[in-house]
Specification:
This protein has two domains: 6-231, Alpha-Beta Complex (2-enoyl-CoA Hydratase, Chain A, domain 1); 236-277, Lyase 2-enoyl-coa Hydratase, Chain  A, domain 2 (Orthogonal Bundle). 37% of the residues are buried. It has helices at 16-21, 48-60, 108-123, 143-150, 178-185, 187-196, 202-207, 220-231, 236-249, 254-275, and strands at residues 24-29, 32-37, 67-72, 131-136, 139-141, 153-157, 161-163, 199-201, 212-215. It is of the alpha/beta class. The strands form two sheets. The chain has a six-stranded mixed beta sheet, with helices on both faces. Strands 5-7-8 form a three-stranded mixed beta sheet. 41% of the residues lie in helices and 15% in strands. Strand 3, helix 3 and strand 4 form a beta-alpha-beta unit. It has ten helices and nine strands. Bound molecules: acetoacetyl-coenzyme A (CAA). Keywords: Lipid metabolism, Lyase. Belongs to the enoyl-CoA hydratase/isomerase family. It holds the Pfam family ECH_1.
Length: 278
């Protein structure tokens, strides 16, 4: 069988047709980029094309973008993978999509390469040059939960419901969600959430460190705007350098971390001196 290869990374943002194929909307407004999963009739179910187009957005995002907001249309974040694609030959809720079940006829290497391409739709959201924020209303299931976890911050509406459904389907979470889940809630809680595939409500998500909020759904847009303003108030490189320090902190030893702090601070002093004409 012929497996699709990773879409060639271009320096141009995906055009309207490409975004429509991934059922995504993209708005870039100065320092803010907003990506909206836009298949509300199927609760924003995702497809491999969604993930490929997400990766293309990540590869071409303008350098001055400081905040990337990811949200879902129609009051739900995302019901995860389009389940019709798990049926051999299934072509997606809206037709014409590459089937995930067809991976069964691929070799292990081909299967791994296809999943690697899918994962790239998620990994770019950890780039320290911007802060990514998942705004979760309603359901974030499976791939939807993992997309939210790929973002630096999750802002939960009071009706947000998170569920790692993969184990209940006989699968594992493979769209890069396991690492941020463990980092945010710890191994025992992460295991319990994944192995039971239970639903975590907004209050609990906030309590265990998964999400900010909860925010009343009616106030969500205002809360997002406030958060974007607050995240962009400081100098861009002060936030970028701090993000990079924090992102890798858990994996570094103290000696390495304090060296990186010194190096970053030296760059900060130099930039500030330049700004003050020093
Ligand atoms: N894939 C395809 N279509 C979906 C879908 C999905 N994941 N989730 C919902 N839809 C469709 C429904 O089939 C329905 O379509 P019709 O109107 O044509 O019948 C429409 O969206 C509305 O769905 P509901 O009536 O069920 O809406 P609801 O608000 O009552 O419930 C829901 C919402 C709780 C999300 C429920 O739809 C649901 O449980 N969906 C399935 C979730 C799921 O199992 N996702 C896969 C997780 S695994 C994964 O993502 C990762 C992986 O790689 C395997």
């Amino acid at each position: 069988m012929r497996l699709p290869t990773l879409a060639a990374m271009s320096t141009d943002l995906p055009d309207a047709d490409r975004l429509a194929a991934g059922r995504l909307r993209l708005a870039v407004d100065g320092v803010l980029a907003t990506i909206t999963l836009d298949k509300p009739e199927a609760r924003n179910a995702q497809t491999p094309t969604t993930w490929r187009v997400l990766a293309e957005i990540g590869a071409a995002l303008p350098a001055d973008v400081r905040v990337v907001v990811v949200r879902g249309a129609g009051g739900t974040f995302s019901a995860g993978l389009d389940r019709t694609l798990l049926t051999p030959g299934g072509s997606g809720a809206s037709g014409g999509q590459e089937s995930v079940a067809d991976l069964l006829t691929a070799s292990d290497e081909e299967m791994s390469a296809a999943i690697d391409a899918y994962q790239r739709g998620f990994t770019w959201l950890r780039d320290p040059r911007f802060v990514s924020v998942a705004v979760v209303e309603g359901h974030a299931i499976g791939a939807g939960f993992q997309l939210a976890l790929s973002c630096d911050l999750v802002l939960a509406a009071d009706d947000a419901r998170f569920c790692m459904k993969e184990t209940a389907l006989g699968l594992v979470p493979d769209l890069t969600g396991t690492k941020p889940l463990v980092e945010r809630v710890g191994y025992p809680r992460a295991l319990e959430i994944c192995a039971t595939a239970r639903t975590v409500g907004a209050e609990e998500a906030a309590r265990i460190g998964l999400a900010l909020g909860p925010v009343p759904a009616a106030e969500l847009d205002g809360a997002v705007a406030e958060l974007v303003t607050a995240l962009t108030a400081a100098l861009p490189d002060a936030v970028r350098e701090t993000t990079a320090l924090l992102l890798g902190a858990a994996e570094r030893d103290l000696e390495t971390q304090r060296r990186l702090e010194r190096e970053a601070q030296t760059r900060r002093f130099r930039e500030l001196a330049g700004l003050m004409g020093g």
